[in-house]
Amino acid sequence: MNRPSEMGSLNGEHADNSAHDSAARRATDQIDPYALIERAEKLINTEPHDAVVFALRAQNVARARTAETLMARAHFVAGSALMQVGDWSGATRQLSQAEQVYRAQDDFVAQSRVNILLATACCELGEYGEALDGFAEVQKLARQHNDHAGVRLALVHQSTVHMMLGDFDAARDSLRSSLELPSGSTADEGMVVLHHGLVDANEGLRAALAGDGAIVMRCMADAEDHFVMALELLSESTDRSTAIAARTQQGAARCWLGKFSEGLADLNAAVMEAAQSGFRSREVHARLELGYHLVGAGREHEGLAILGPALMQAEELGDLRRPADSYERLSALYEARADFQLALYHHKRYVEVKTRLDGRLSTQRARLHEARAELQKLRTQTAALHQKARDLEQSRSRLERLALEDELTGLANRRSFTKELESWCARARAGTLRFGLVVADIDGFKQINDRHSHLTGDAVLRQLGNVIRANLRDTDFAARLGGDEFALLLADSEGGAAMAVVERLIDAVRKSSWAEFDSALHVTMSIGLCESSDFGDSSELVRRADESLYAAKHAGRDRVHLWNGSA
Fold it and tell me: How many domains does the chain have?
């Protein structure tokens, strides 16, 4: 397929200065970026190079429109496609940019999916320690947000790392842990069972290379069972790529077990389905397995006729790992047949391809470390910006709180009280509320400050604020107006309810433990109470409450006076 000329660098690090021209901007405005991304997503498994092209086009459009979420999706798709073509460093750069956006947006699910792919890239490049750390981080994040699907995916891919390290028990433990999570879809279960089979098959292949036939048969029998089950679970799935992989593995396992007719039928079916679906990588893998097992079954001429082109196609796709594995297995096969000349030939080919693969991986690892260093730098910068934003938000919240809250007592301040009183009065005028207005102050507060110190006076005010909060109802409102003066709004004041509240409050003040501040300290308060009744003028209410407070003081303090038409 002809590739569009703007493919450029696969890592997306290119810029076209002409994009700033008005003509280019008009052209960009006419492009549907969502259609580009959807097309790229459909091409990831069949034509990954073209998928990258469309994803990069979508990025250009999204960048011009400053559409960050769209941009992140385009980076994610481009990274996924680049992984398909083996450009792990390019994939890492694309995925890292997607991760930054999702992290900034607190989209934890998308963040987990990106980090799974980043950890997978590490695994493919042989950075197994980093891969395990990455999957552990994903699991932690996903568990924090009850993302069971994310945990499951991380565990499944984690099993692959353990498998590559030859720790097959740890790989199986990871898969068993994934099955203990709340059930996902049948396709999810099929994926887990497929990976169980892959662990069995890889353990069997290692045993085959070591010449341990008994372990080979046991492992391949377990693998066949898992692949049969996986295919059943995947039968209704739309993920045909995974189903083809399961069919290929099932066929290979059966061939290892000597079930050549069944195994070769599976492999031929996998080749045909992959070819029809356009899954070139899956098709090449199935052809490699088919060719190898035809040789193993004694149909050497037929097998080599399939293997030769398949090996070339694999290299064209940038896949050197499977050719290396094929040459290694062929070398072992011919050695077992005592055909040492062919064994040596295929061993030399294995060494040649493996050397090329190691060189490529070394380069990719270096680029990966660069990309991860950039990612860490971006994460640090993002974290700093987020912290600055949080600090600013906290400062704003504090300023807003201070604007409406008394800093000493934590009650509302005069400004907040005035606003609240006007609201309550409006409701009273509308006939939807009756309330009581209280003004109160501490008896002899000046003497408290003079005799016991201003620090003690502040402590008294704080304690009084706590006493007021403890003795009011959820529907009431309390404020400190300034100095030792307090005001209360008491909802639903009918039938003496307001009077009951303030009498309880006065009693609570008397009985509070003031001696803890000074053994000689005794605190009381006087209260003036006025009920809204038939009027709702705030200034008149305040005047009457003040007159009632003065009356309480005049009568001897430490009491409440209800306004009854005169002070």
Answer: 2
Domain coverage including residue 33: 16-105
Q: Would you call 484 a catalytic residue per the annotation? A: yes
Q: Report whether 312 contacts 282 (CB < 8 A).
A: no
**Residue 159 half-sphere exposure toward CB, CA atoms < 13 A:** 28
Asked if 486 and 480 touch (Cβ cutoff 8 Å), the reply is yes
CATH number at residue 41: 1.25.40.10
Residue 7, pLDDT > 60, answer: no
Cα gap 494→473, rounded to integer Å: 15
Task: Name the pLDDT band for 5 (thresholds 50, 70, 90).
Answer: very low
Q: Which residues pair with 236 in a beta bridge?
A: none
- Kindly report, residue by residue over 16-75, the tens digit of the pLDDT: 444 444 444 444 446 788 899 999 988 887 788 888 899 999 988 888 887 888 889 999
Who contacts 290 (Cβ-Cβ below 8 Å, separation ≥6)? 251, 264, 267, 268, 271, 303, 306
For residue 520, being part of any structural domain is answered with yes
> What is the CATH number for 553?
3.30.70.270
> Which among 105, 131, 152 is the end of a domain?
105
Residue of 147, 319, 476, 484 with catalytic role = 484
Per residue in 332-376, pLDDT (tens digit) is 777 777 778 877 877 787 777 777 766 665 666 566 666 667 766
Asked which of 105, 121, 148 is the last residue of a domain, the reply is 105
CA atoms within 13 A on the CB side of 539: 0
Q: Is residue 24 part of a domain?
A: yes
Has residue 35 been placed in a domain?
yes
Contact 52, 6 (CB under 8 A): no
